[in-house]
Structures are given as C-alpha cells and as structure tokens.
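Hi R.,

Here's the input for the adenosine-5'-diphosphate complex you asked about:
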Amino acid sequence: MKSSILRRFVLVTQVLVLFTLVASFYAFRIPASKDSPGAAAVLVWLSCATLALGLAWLVSLPLMLRVRRLKRMAEGLLDVPLHQNGTQDASNELGALEISLSGVAAQVRTLVDRLRLESARREAILASMAEGVLAVDSDLRIIFSNDALFRSVGGSRKIAENTRLLALIRDTGLFDTLRDVVRTGENRKHRLKIISDRERSFEVQAGPLEMPSGSGAIAILYDTTDIERLEQVRKDFVANVSHEMRTPLAGIIGYAETLLDGALEDEQNNRRFVQIIHSSAIRLNSIASDLLVLSELESKVEPRESGRIAVRDVVESALAIVEKEAEMRGVKLIREEIQELQVVGTRLRLEQAVLNLVANAIKFNLPGGEVRIRVVQDAAGYVSITVSDTGVGIPSQDLPRIFERFYRVDKGRSRQVGGTGLGLTIVKHVIERMNGTIEVQSQLRYGSTFTVRLPLATNAG
Ligand SMILES: Nc1ncnc2c1ncn2[C@@H]1O[C@H](COP(=O)(O)OP(=O)(O)O)[C@@H](O)[C@H]1O
Ligand SMILES: [Mg+2]
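And here is the predicted structure with adenosine-5'-diphosphate in place:
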C-alpha cells in the first residue's frame, strides 16, 4: 500500500490486535483474583480500543480516497507534471496534495498575469483607436465599447456593460444589422447618423464575435462626417463654377447669335450687343483668374517671391487701382493713418487681398459714402490693416459665411457690380498663409469693418 497514513493505521491496528490477543491469552490463563482484579478490565479496554481504531480506519478510508482524488484533480489542472521541491514531503496524501495545489496556484498566477496583460493590451488598443468599437452578445446587449464610441454617441457617462444596444444608439438599422450578423455569422455593412452635439455620419463594419458564452457581434464605426462634408463642398464647388460660368457664357452665345442672325446690320443695337459680349467675356475671365489664384493658394506650394513687404506701398497700389471706380460711385477714400510697417509674404498676393477688401468696401457702398483705411501696429505688436465703410452692411446671419467660396449675400447686386463671390475666400487664404487673421464687424445699413492682423517682419525676417 502506497499511503503512509493508511499504512500507519493498519500497522497500529495490527499491533493493537496482537496486543489484544496476548492480553486475552493472559486474561484466560490467569484467573481473576483479588490480587489482579484489572486483567479482565484491561482485556475489555483493549478490545474497545481495537474496535475504535478499526472504526477510525474505516471512517478515514473514504477521506483518504477523497484526498487522493483531489490530488489527481489538482494535477489534472497543471499543464506540466510537477517536480517535487525539497521543502515539501510527498510521502503522504496531504503532502502530495499540497505540492499539487501549490503547483496549480503558481500556474493560476501566471495565467492571471497573462490575462491581465492581454486585457491591458486590448484596453490600450481600443482606447487609442479613432474609430468607435462596440461588441454585443446574442441578446444585443453591450459587452464592451471604447472611448471613441462613447464620444461619438455624445454620452455624459461611460457606457455600462449590459446596456441594451437600442438604448445607446436608437438606430433600428444598426440593430437589424448586428442581429443579422449574430444570426448568420457573416460580415455586414451599414451607414448611420448620430445626432449628439451635431449630426455625424458613420459607416459601420460589423462581424461575428465567438465567445465561450455564445455568439455575438463586433462593430467598428468609422466617422465619415468630414469626408462627406468635403465631398459636398467639392460637388457644390463644381455646381457653383458651372453655374457662374453659364450666365456670362449664355450672354456671349446669345448675343453673338443675335448678331449673326442679322443684328450686325442693326446700326442702333449692334454696338450694345458687342458691349454685352465684351463684359460677359471679362466676367468669365475674372472668374477664371480668381479660380486660378484660389487653386494656387490652396496648393501648399510656397511662393518663390516671398520676402519683406512694405504695407504702405501695398495699400497705395491697391488704392490706385480702385480710385477711379470710387470716384465713379461717389465714394470717398480716406487714408486715416498709414504707418510704415513691414510684413513677410508675397507682395502681389497681399496687394490682391487689400484690393479685394477695398473693392468690396466701394462696391457695397452708397453714393456719398466713405471708405477708411488704417495701417497701425496694434497693442499686441501685430500689423493691423483696417478697411471700414459706410455701406450697406452685412446681415448678422450671413457674417459667418461670407468667406466661403461663391457666397454672396445679395447675388443679384453682387453680379451687377461684378463680383464672383471668391474675393473674400482669396483674402482669407492669403492672410492665413501669412500667419495672420481676418475679422469682420458689420451693421446692416451702417457699414462694415474688416480687420486684418499680420505678424510684423522681424529684423531677422
Ligand atoms: N464691405 C462690404 N459691405 C457689405 N457686404 C460685403 C462687403 N464685403 C463683402 N460683402 C458681402 O460678402 C460677399 C462676398 O464677398 P466677396 O467674396 O468679395 O464676393 P464678391 O465681391 O465677388 O461678391 C459679397 O457678395 C457681399 O454680399
Ligand atoms: Mg469681392
């Protein structure tokens, strides 16, 4: 028998049985007398002890067997067989069980550490992802999600596990998609919009997720808001360009045909028709050149002619170009204060920007109105160029949009005075490329003030 405890029990029992036999032998040989009254009692006592020990052995036997089973079970949990170390005694069941259990404990610790590391790695990957990640179980309850998803749904607190999907994102399409993935185990795609602080568009890619507790689904939400907005801007731009070109083109084609159809001989009108063709062609030309300037500004290539620019010279050149037009419209140009300051950039571009601002101030003015120009160094040390007018002003709801391409408050008036709606877009680009800013303040019917701030050229610049 391998078990030392059992062996000890059996040994003790055997010794006691032997002892009982010897005791019984003497008890029968030596009759009870007054001198030895205890012999029979000793015999009874020894018989009882033997019985008790026999019973103890019987009771302890299942316990021994259970301890052995536990040892086997503990060993079964181990990946590798255990080698006994010097401090533990494997010669009995309890010692062997202790060894097995300490082996299991060590392996469980390693396993838990590995799981912790794995979980930390997964958390770090999920947290660093820009895309929202969401996993659901077969009842479409959230198992886990990441911070990006939390931000996308505009939640005020973390998404609790077991939250129902529909309680988090009220999009039945997403619900149906994920249910489909759980049911079929196939990948699916879906598009959805979530309205939190603003409306956002998402493309969802969902796939099956196999878990020990059953099948689920995992979804990755790609934010496509900016891509869609850019695509819309591009479409609007193409539509606007075609629209803006169609008007002068229609004028050119229409009047040229009229002339060809006989109006050439019409002494009274032919000159007027040619003039319309001419002004339409000029308009087409200005749209084309504004577009060219804009695309050049938008391409990130640095202009070669960049250098120090005297702002006063730039302002004077711009004013010289518009002086005639101001006079024609009865608008007075006032140089309020023009300090001698220098900035760094491309002279022609800055001249174009100042020209656009002054031209607007004249165009959107009234006869008898004024345009004031100031070039000073402001309190923060920046070169501040201010163009203010006493013109028609800009409605407050249009103010945030006037720098957009082709945006015009009054399309009819702008077209009439020869605008493309690209002037302020160009100004903004030019100023921002020179690391400056532009601001506008306006009051309807009272006038507008555009303020450009540019970094002063340093001695090193
Ligand atoms: N000084 C101004 N006063 C009033 N409205 C202005 C002024 N400057 C610009 N705007 C408004 O902003 C719009 C956009 O200006 P801009 O981009 O220069 O286009 P454009 O001059 O070709 O119409 C103009 O159509 C006009 O409605
Ligand atoms: Mg303009």
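One thing worth noting: The pocket of adenosine-5'-diphosphate (ligand 1) is lined by residues 356, 360-361, 364, 389, 391-394, 402, 407-410, 414, 419-425, 448 (CB under 6 Å).

Cheers,
M.
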